[in-house]
Automatic annotation (TrEMBL):
Similarity section: Belongs to the immunoglobulin superfamily. DCC family.
Repeat listed as a keyword: yes
Protein name in UniProt: Immunoglobulin superfamily DCC subclass member 3
Source species taxonomy: Eukaryota, Metazoa, Chordata, Craniata, Vertebrata
Annotated region (Disordered), positions in chain: 643-754
Cellular component GO terms, alphabetical: membrane
Length: 754
């Protein structure tokens, strides 16, 4: 890149102009860039050949010696001119300059005679067309009107307003139009001022309101509004959208004309003139629209770039204007044609060139144009190419494997294969734009690639590039192949038993089935090999009843979807009608009237059962209460029985008990211990409050004689001081004949302290 000065670009471009008949015309064009540079001119797209009338100067400008609107051969020097510059890197075209001949027509509106009372308002108007816009001046009695008089207002469009008329304002008026083409005079008109100033009340009236105007930025707009009335109305201005008019560049001419200098796009809108009666709300209004156009100008220029072969080049060109400009792209001065690898997006503001090669190296221009003007900007694309790169891969083939898979194979390039580090497979739907392309990288030793996850019944294009560390080869030839069609997926199948001889097959529609033409239904007895069917069903059918079946066998039902590519996988279900028959035998059809009566009887039985149950519960509670009292009485009888020995001592239980460390007693005392233990157990189960006398006597002595039945004392101990330990009985010695049993020695301490 040689820097900005190396770019071929315009320093001066031709501009719009108005030429005078039979006068010379010069159109300027100056270019910078790397020499040599060739400059040529075109008019209305046709190359201009040097002649005596038009030729190019040494600085590149075009000189027209004698401009003529219409020549003898019918041609004209009017038209659109552009300048073209070309060097080794490309060609650029300047903006189009519109050249018109200076003209002036006759007046199509002349001033008219007027009779106005003193103190009133007089207005004269004349209109004439011309290029450039004629300047109109007014004369009174053949002398220029004194513009220093504040009561006289001259508007640019040929209007003369006189307010507060006086007798000396009477006279003969006419206008004079002047431009570089000619000078013309209008007809004369007489103004007569009659009578004296009237004091009769008159409502406000707008004689002339603002007209619709279309202008260009930086011009001046004059919106006329002249009103009459008695008293004299006050004229005010506003915008219909409510936005403020502002003060910068705003001026009031005469008694109510609005002048806006140095127009901008923001001044566009509808303006309302109001004539108000002083001191009241009485008013009259008139409105007119102002449209301000702006020539196209660039917000973002395209930038020159350098890209390797096979990559993507993107140019961006953003322009603004009012109305919004149209963008056109040129390649070396010619209209750019889009193709598979050249795309325009975002209202032509973005130019993308995919898979560039050396033929894409050129100067690309962006032309922005609207009704207010045009502009251009250019940028150069340099394609980088390294010597010794591989030639394109050879023999690219693509074979369809399935509905979603294609096998692509190729052969290595014929030249410069030593530096290859890999291949890139470029994949795209044939119907998609180039920017939708995607790539898959392949190692240098692999010459085939299985492309998966494709769409059924779809055409795909493939090409290969070989890559080295210095760049990529040119693209191989493009091959296009289509995937196979796909059969539908398995439908979901459900079987419902209707009766002992019929079932219903139902299935759900699903987008997973894909494009299918319908369904095929088969069924058979499981012990047979032959199916009944297929039963062909439309794609919108979702149920089918199978009848006249044998209830004693099991059936197999099979359903599949099909389309033009074949049959899909089937869904199989098994169904048995035997259970239905058995249920019918065991559960005969119901007698509805009988069932209703049974239901009523059952309800009555439930109510009776509830009453019986409640009664039983009450009896049980009473039984438990009386049983508790009976048990107390029974326990008292047991206590009386235990106080007197009932069986011989020799038949007593030999197990010994130690109570709170009490000493062992002899064999005879064990009966008493057992009685006392039983009584303690009963006291624990059926506690009773002991008398104070019982508490004072304490525990009966171990050696004391047994008390009489009526005087038996029972001692109670707190539970935390009471424990029972069962010990193994010692062998009892045989008592001596005729002697008393030997009492055991007293214990020296508690056997076990709880």
């Amino acid at each position: 890149d040689f820097g900005r000065s190396s770019e071929l670009a315009f320093v001066v471009e031709p501009s719009d102009d108005i030429a005078v008949q039979e006068q010379p015309l010069i159109l300027y064009c100056q270019v910078e860039g790397i020499q040599p540079i060739t400059i040529t001119w075109r008019k209305n797209g046709v190359m201009i050949v040097d002649s005596d009338n038009a030729f190019m100067l040494a600085n590149g400008s075009l000189y027209v010696s004698r401009f003529q609107r219409v020549r003898g051969d019918g041609s004209s020097d009017e038209g659109e001119y552009d300048c073209m510059a070309q060097n080794h890197y490309g060609l650029v075209v300047s903006r189009k300059a519109k050249i018109q001949a200076a003209t002036m027509s006759d007046f199509h509106i002349h001033p008219q005679n007027a009779v106005v009372e003193e103190g009133g308002v007089a207005r004269f108007q004349c209109q004439i067309h011309g290029l450039p816009e004629p300047v109109i001046l007014w004369h009174k009695n053949s002398m220029p009107v004194n513009t220093d008089n504040e009561r006289y207002t001259l508007l640019p469009k040929g209007v003369l307003q006189i307010t507060g008329l006086r007798a000396e304002d009477s006279g003969i008026f006419h206008c004079v139009a002047t431009n570089i083409a000619n000078v013309k005079f209008s007809r004369e008109a007489r103004l007569t001022v009659s009578g004296s100033h009237s004091t009769v009340y008159k409502d406000p009236t707008i004689l002339v309101g603002p007209e619709n105007l279309t202008l260009t930025v930086h011009q001046t707009a004059v919106l006329e509004c002249i009103a009459t009335g008695n008293p004299r109305p006050i004229v005010s201005w506003s915008r219909l959208d409510g936005r403020p008019i502002g003060v910068e560049g705003i001026q009031v001419l005469g008694t109510g004309n609005l002048m806006i200098s140095d127009l901008t796009v923001q001044h566009s809108g509808i303006y309302v003139c109001a004539a108000n009666k002083p001191g009241t709300r009485v008013r009259r209004t008139a409105q007119g629209s102002l449209v301000v156009q702006a020539p196209a100008e660039f917000v973002q220029h395209p930038q020159s770039i350098s890209r390797p072969v096979g990559t993507t080049a993107i140019f961006t060109c953003v322009a603004q204007g009012e109305p919004p400009p149209q963008i056109t792209w040129l390649r070396n001065g010619q209209i750019l044609e889009t193709s598979d690898h050249i795309k325009l997006k975002n209202n032509n503001s973005t130019l993308s060139i995919y898979g560039i090669n050396q033929t894409d190296e050129a100067i690309y221009q962006c032309l922005a144009e609207n009704s207010a003007g045009s502009t251009q900007a250019s940028a150069r694309l340099t394609v980088l190419w390294a010597d010794g790169l591989p030639s394109p891969p050879q023999g690219v083939r693509a074979e369809t494997v399935s509905a979603t898979t294609i096998q692509v194979s190729w052969e290595k390039p014929l030249q410069n294969t030593k530096e290859i580090i890999g291949y890139v497979l470029h994949i795209r739907k044939a119907a998609d734009p180039v920017e939708m392309e995607y790539q898959e990288a392949v190692s240098k030793s692999t010459f085939q690639q299985l492309v998966t996850d494709l769409e059924p019944s779809t055409s795909y294009s493939f090409y290969i590039k070989a890559y080295t560390s210095r760049g990529a080869s040119k693209a191989s030839e493009v091959t296009v192949v289509s995937t196979l069609g796909e059969v539908p997926a398995m439908p979901s199948l459900f079987i419902k038993v209707i009766n002992s001889t019929a079932v219903q097959a139902t299935w759900e529609p699903s987008i997973k089935l894909g494009q299918h033409e319908g369904f095929k239904l088969y069924y058979r007895k499981v012990h047979l090999s032959q199916y009944t069917g297929p039963v062909l069903l439309a794609s919108n059918v979702t149920a089918y009843n199978i009848t006249h079946l044998d209830a004693s066998v099991v059936y197999e039902v099979k359903l599949l979807a099909y389309n033009q590519h074949g049959d899909g996988d089937s869904t199989v279900r098994f169904v048995s009608l035997r259970e239905t028959v058995e249920r019918t035998v065991l559960n005969p059809p119901c007698d509805c009237m009988k069932d209703e009566q049974n239901n009523k009887t059952s309800t009555t039985g439930i109510i009776i059962g509830i009453h019986i149950g409640v009664t039983c519960i009450i009896f049980c509670i009473l039984f438990l209460m009386f049983g508790y009292r009976g048990r107390l009485l029974m326990c008292k009888n047991v206590q009386e029985q235990l106080s007197t020995p009932q069986i011989p001592r020799s038949q007593r239980n030999t197990a010994g008990l130690v109570l709170n460390g009490a000493a062992r007693r002899d064999r005879d005392d064990r009966d008493l211990n057992e009685k006392q233990l039983d009584m303690n157990e009963l006291e624990r189960l059926f506690p009773a409050s002991p008398t104070q006398e019982q508490q004072d006597k304490g525990i009966m002595s171990a050696h004391g004689p047994p008390a009489p039945h009526d005087d038996t004392q029972i001692s109670t101990l707190p539970l935390d001081e009471f424990s029972i330990i069962e010990e193994q009985p010692d062998p009892l010695p045989n008592p001596p004949r005729g002697g008393s049993p030997v009492a055991p020695a007293p214990a020296h301490g508690p056997a076990n302290e709880g």
